[in-house]
Structures are given as C-alpha cells and as structure tokens.
Write a structure and sequence with these properties.
This protein is an alpha+beta fold. The protein has a domain at 3-202 and 383-388: Ribosomal Protein S5, domain 2 (2-Layer Sandwich). The chain is 42% helix and 23% strand. The chain has helices at 3-15, 93-106, 131-146, 153-166, 175-182, 222-241, 254-260, 267-291, 295-311, 318-329, 356-371; strands at residues 22-31, 43-44, 46-59, 64-69, 78-81, 115-121, 187-192, 197-202, 208-218, 333-339, 344-352, 376-379, 387-388. Strand 4 (64-69) and strand 5 (78-81) form a beta hairpin. Bound molecules: alpha-D-galactopyranose. Alpha-D-galactopyranose binds next to helix 5.
Length: 390
C-alpha cells in the first residue's frame, strides 16, 4: 500500500471516512551550497526533495484539532484548541504545527477553525533534511487550503520560520521553509536571503546524480551550537560596522572582508565571519558554474565549502568529515560536502551516474570500518514545494 492509501485508511478508522477529505504533501530539502549564510544576508541554493511529510486532513466546525502521526504512533491522538497557544520547547512534531497556527494568528492571518489530520513522513527524522520545516509547511498549506486563506507561499515560508524562531525557540534562517514551500520540480532555488529574491535554476544534470548520504548521527549540541554560531556572526558584524557601513556579512566580497577583518576583536568570530562571507561568494559562483555547465568548478566549490564548515565554522563532525573526505577520493565524484546545519545529518555529493554504485559500495565499506555504523543513501529528486495533492 502506498503512503497516501495508508493515511486514508488510518484516517477513516480514527476519524471516520465521511466529508471532504484532502491530501497534502510538504517536502524536505537538500542544500547544494551556501551553508550558514541564510541568517547572514547571504545566498543559498537548496532544492525541495520528493521525500517529506504527507497528511490527510478534514476541516472541523469548531476550533479543535485532532492529530495523529503514523511516524510517532506512541504519541497517540493529540487534541488541542487552536486558541490560547503558548510557545514551548517540547520539540514534539505537533508543536511545530501548533506553532504555525499561532504564528499565522500573530501575523494577522487568524486560522478560522480546526481540523482532523493523520500524517506520515517518508523522510528520515533528525537527518538534517529539514523534517521540521516540512512539518511546518504542511501545517501552513493545510490551513491555507482548508480555509481558503489569502496568504502567499512565500508568507507560508516566513510563518514557518517565525514559528520555529518564536514558538519552538530555534533561531533558524529562512532556507529550509523557503525550499519546502517554494520548491520546483527538477530545479534548485537560488535565494538571496537579504531580499528574498529568488531564481529557479534547472538541475539538468545529464550524466550525474545528486546523492545524499545519511551519517545516521545527530549530535545533541546541534541546537545550542547553532544559536552560538549566529551570535558569533552578529558580534563579528558589529565590529565590522564600527569601521564600515554594511548591513550584513553577505554584503561583503572576499577582498572587502580581508580589508576590514582586523576590526573583529575575537579571533573565533573572525573565522566564523570568514566562513559566512566566503561561503556566500562560493554559492554565487557555484550557481554561475552550473549555468555554464562547469560542474568541475561547482564540485571544487563544494569541497571548499566543506573545508570551511569543518575548520572555520566548526559545524562538521568526524562522521561527516569521513563521508566527504572519502568521497573526494572516489573516481566519478564531482563534489561532496556536509549539508544543512551540521553536527551530524547528511552529506550531498554530485556523482557520475556510472560511478554511483561504486560510490555507495566504497563509502559504505569505509564508513563501517571507521565508525562501526551503516550509512544510508538517497538519490535526490528535486520536487515541487508544499501543497494539496488530492
Ligand atoms: C539549518 C537552518 C537553516 C540554515 C542551515 C545552515 O538547516 O534551519 O536556516 O541556517 O541550518 O545552512
């Protein structure tokens, strides 16, 4: 049985099969390059994935929600009013959805009523492929569609980010929600996070595949270290602003950064800011390379990105380093780097199609030898953003 059929069956058993039952999907994302730039006014280059969260939902005529997740059956049916919600850091899957309902109301888009819903993911949770943003965008499109709410998909992305920042206490940038809401089949999104101007760039790789490798590790410091990195960048920016008029680190070219970096007092913050500035420029160059079909240069930029995330930004971990560094040695690998927030999760690699099998075999073997763990592979399939599918 496919996931949609499973959901419909479960929904009927739990909540009854009558009325206008609708089906929704919101994708996860993989970022090709431009990491930890989205809260520094820089560029990112993610694509939405064909993996994500699915839901079956039906409007209710009161202000209650009844939700059940087939991914977390141990939580049972969750029931709540959509009024009087208070931010919390419980981190349960449904807190991300309530957060969006709360955020919509806070921003002048009060959700008129509740709904019953059953959901299920085909995206591995905690793997750095934005399961949480996908859950947020799922909630946003369900409210939008069930209640004909007048809200754009870009605003759905912003509401997801707002709720994650203010309701769930995670200070993320806009990349993940934007990718989940705005994805386009066979395209990646080149997004300027300072202006939210974006461009869809075709991913017409002729003989190559985008391979995601899941390290299967999630280090617990991810959330707090993320907020620390943000603070380091803000401190660096403040110091730079004492000598130069800039709004964000993304405003600076490499040369401009080198000319002002001595104003940054803390040497750790110098490295953090160097990453943010150079990574933003790498993202801009990489998109240009892709348009010119210069995959070799794109791959080299991916490698530089990983090295900078490892050494200057310090958000990699031994497992992600093994996966990337071993990938660089394999014939037919054009580029490889950690992707997403870091401290575990996945790498993304561009691999020649006829080398994919060898890539998987070699990486699995070395990873097992060095860590004792099994990694997992997914071929990335760039998909459309969140919406109703039936
Ligand atoms: C997480 C955040 C994003 C972004 C990435 C790093 O995925 O949610 O906003 O900052 O890390 O690029």
């Amino acid at each position: 049985m496919g996931i949609v059929e499973e959901l419909k069956k479960e929904f009927t058993e739990r909540f009854g099969g009558e009325g206008d039952i609708r089906v929704y999907f919101a994708p996860g994302r993989v970022n090709l390059i431009g990491e930890h730039t989205d809260y520094n006014g820089g560029h990112v280059f993610p694509c939405a994935l064909s993996m994500g969260n699915y839901a079956v939902a039906r409007k209710r005529d009161d202000e209650t929600v009844r939700w059940y997740s087939m991914t977390y059956p141990e939580n049972g049916v969750f029931e709540s009013s959509i009024r009087g919600l208070e931010p919390n850091d419980n981190g349960l899957c449904f807190d991300y959805q309530l957060g969006v309902i709360w955020a919509l109301e806070k921003n002048g888009h009060k959700v008129p009523g509740g709904f019953d819903m059953v959901m299920k993911a085909d995206l591995p949770a905690g793997s750095g492929l934005s399961a949480s943003a996908s859950i947020e965008e799922l909630a946003a499109v369900i409210c939008r569609d069930l209640y004909d709410m007048d809200i754009s998909m870009v605003d759905c992305a912003l509401m997801g980010q707002y709720s994650e920042n203010e309701y769930n206490g995670m200070n993320c940038g806009i990349m993940d929600q934007f990718a989940s809401a705005m994805g386009k089949k066979d395209h990646a999104i080149f997004l300027d996070t300072a202006t939210l101007k974006y461009e869809y760039v075709p991913l017409n790789l002729k003989n190559e595949k985008i391979v995601i490798t899941n390290s299967k590790v999630k280090h617990s410091l991810a959330g707090s270290a993320y907020n620390d990195r943000r603070r380091d960048c803000e401190n660096a920016l403040k110091d730079i602003q004492s000598v130069r008029d800039v709004k964000t680190l993304g405003d600076l070219s490499e040369e401009e950064f080198e000319a002002v970096k001595d104003a940054i007092k803390d040497p750790v913050c110098v490295r953090r800011a160097r990453h943010a500035v150079y990574e933003n420029q790498r993202a801009i160059k990489a998109v240009d390379d892709l348009k010119k079909d210069d995959l070799k240069s794109f791959g080299e930029l991916m490698k530089q990105s990983h090295i900078s995330l490892r050494d200057d930004y310090e958000v990699s971990c031994p497992e992600l380093d093994i996966l990337s560094e071993e990938a660089w040695k394999i014939d037919g690998v054009i580029g490889s780097r950690m992707t997403g927030g870091g401290f575990g999760g996945c790498t993304v690699s561009i691999v020649k199609e006829d080398s994919v099998e060898n890539f998987k075999e070699t990486i699995s073997k070395v990873y097992k030898e060095k860590t004792g763990m099994d990694c997992e592979f997914y071929i990335a399939d760039a998909a459309d953003g969140a919406g109703r599918i039936e």
